[in-house]
Specification:
Length: about 475
């Protein structure tokens, strides 16, 4: 039986894209599975003047693919209220408090509140200080704040933001979303590493030649040109998702799966990241790129996208090699690649093992691939004897890829993360120390790139990035395992 939690959600940015695409479906699934019952309510707030009825119709529309019946969906949507709200207006917080207290009584919620900040981070400090000052925070239940990315644009701005939020909420009340940490196969990295002796024993620098993380999108910037042109791939993907994955792949075994122990081991990795060498020459450890028109001329280049500077130097692609300066991993590169308008949408990790020690065969490296999305599962590429005479090898692929149906039925990242918030489990959220340390690493790369103002390497849209990304890895005698 699912454990039901009483909760009032107050969603700032309730008319936005994220709320519609991710939050309402996730909350509905939790309701369907019994993690939320009759004692839950949602107040959606945003600038637009919507009625409760209209809001409930919007919620019903967003869950239309998931509903058991019209009646079930209507009952669920009946828990939602809308309050038009300007985040800077103190008077609105008084109205919000009155509505929150009323719903708390009506649904018997007993003071548990989740404040979901699904808006531009420039408002986070204003909202959290008003929540505290206008007494939206309760004494009789839990008060938790969910914060969307981006958490700042460099170390200084993230620290400023964090200080503002900390003036009203403690770190243990904050849940910074990194939706990669909610993905099944990212969570599975630790299970794979620490529950299989075979893998556990070979997860070291003697056996592993290199790690390769690929987070590629085939889409361009779509409607997010304005945001993206100021951000770029390094800030948008590397500071958070990529470095989180690096820490999960290389951290030591935690003493237990508590938030504190897991964070301790992740932090040990982030603290040990070697300063990146970033130059315009061959010794560089990070390269960038920007998508140009595709080879067939049908897909436009980044500079022609809506709300993008036609002379923009913003990177839509990053490749790099990350080194961890610990006895366990020194000299084992973690190659990373991420970008937009690449040949295929995929998130995966390829773990490339060293050739066998005996040198009897001309063996190819064993490769363990962790498929994060859209396929989910593992693949193991091994050498095996070709049938027939001689001692020749051929590769064999052991595959444990989950069926489309299984993937579809398994909980989506937002559903799992919101459930974690209901349960007060912070393991799969980014702690301030992790965020701060990651920004400090990424800032070093940013600073160098910002000083190279003359040009940026281009790659044709729908390829796997600029030639520089191949040179980076080939200079070490390695190759990208994943080729679209
Ligand atoms: P959006 O632009 O679609 O929605 C923003 C919301 O904020 C709207 O509801 C708008 O009415 C409200 N708003 C703006 N100014 C306001 C004001 N002064 N007072 C009251 N309300 C105001 O944005 P989104 O795509 O839903 O994203 C929300 C947050 O989530 C952002 O921080 C974004 O970076 C993050 N995020 C979004 C996605 C995504 O897939 N959409 C993915 C990851 C992170």
């Amino acid at each position: 039986m699912s454990q039901e939690t009483k909760a009032l959600f107050i969603i700032f940015g309730a008319t936005g894209d994220l709320a519609h695409r991710k939050l309402y479906p996730a909350i509905y699934k939790l309701y369907k599975k019994g993690f939320l019952g009759e004692s839950f309510a949602v107040i959606g707030t945003a600038r637009r003047e919507w009625s409760d009825d209209y809001y409930q119709d919007v919620v019903m529309d967003s869950i239309s693919d998931l509903t058991e019946s019209e009646e079930h969906a209507r009952t669920f949507a009946g828990h939602f209220r809308y309050q038009s709200h300007n985040v800077k207006d103190t008077e609105h917080y008084h109205m919000l408090k009155d509505l929150a207290d009323k719903l708390d009584d009506e649904y018997g919620i007993e003071g548990n509140r989740i404040f979901y900040l699904s808006m531009s981070p420039s408002f986070f400090g204003t909202i959290t200080s008003h929540l505290r000052e206008q007494n939206l925070v309760t004494d009789n239940g839990f008060n938790r704040v969910i914060i969307e990315k981006p958490f700042g644009s460099d170390f200084d701005s993230s620290k400023e933001l964090n200080d503002e939020i900390n003036a009203s909420f403690d770190e243990d009340q904050l849940y910074r979303i990194d939706h990669y940490l909610g993905k099944e196969m990212v969570q599975n990295i630790l299970a794979l590493r620490f529950s299989n002796r075979l893998i556990e024993n070979s997860w070291n620098k003697e056996s592993i030649s290199n790690f390769q993380i690929t987070l590629s999108e085939d889409l361009g910037v779509e409607e997010r040109g304005e945001y993206y042109d100021k951000s770029g791939a390094l800030r948008d993907m590397v500071q958070n998702h990529v470095l989180q994955m690096v820490s999960l792949l290389t951290m030591n075994s935690p003493k237990s799966f508590t938030t504190v122990e897991v964070r301790k081991e992740k932090m040990a990795i982030l603290n040990a990241l070697k300063d990146p060498v970033v130059t315009q020459d061959e010794d560089t450890e990070f390269v960038r790129g920007q998508y140009d028109t595709s080879d067939n001329g049908e897909t436009k280049g980044y500079r022609s996208e809506d709300k993008v500077d036609p002379e923009s130097l913003t990177e839509t692609f990053v490749a790099g090699k990350i080194f961890i300066d610990t006895d366990e991993w020194r000299d084992t590169p973690v190659y990373i690649r991420t970008g937009k308008r690449l040949a295929q949408k995929t998130s995966r990790v390829d773990v490339v093992f060293n050739p066998s020690e005996t040198a009897l065969y001309d063996d190819k490296p064993t490769v363990l691939s962790i498929l994060v999305s859209p396929d989910e599962g593992f693949e193991l590429l091994l050498n095996n004897k070709q049938i027939g005479p001689g001692m020749h090898l051929e590769p064999v692929r052991l595959s444990a890829v989950r069926s489309e149906e299984t993937v579809e039925e398994s909980p989506e990242a937002y559903e799992k993360l919101i459930l974690d918030v209901l349960n007060g489990d912070e393991t799969h959220f980014a702690h301030w120390q992790e965020v701060a340390t990651s920004w400090k690493y990424v800032d070093q790369i940013r600073k160098r790139w910002d000083s190279y103002t003359d040009s940026i390497p281009f790659y044709p849209a729908l390829t796997m990035g600029p030639d520089e990304a191949d040179t980076l890895i080939e200079n070490d005698g390695n190759n990208w395992i994943y080729k679209a």
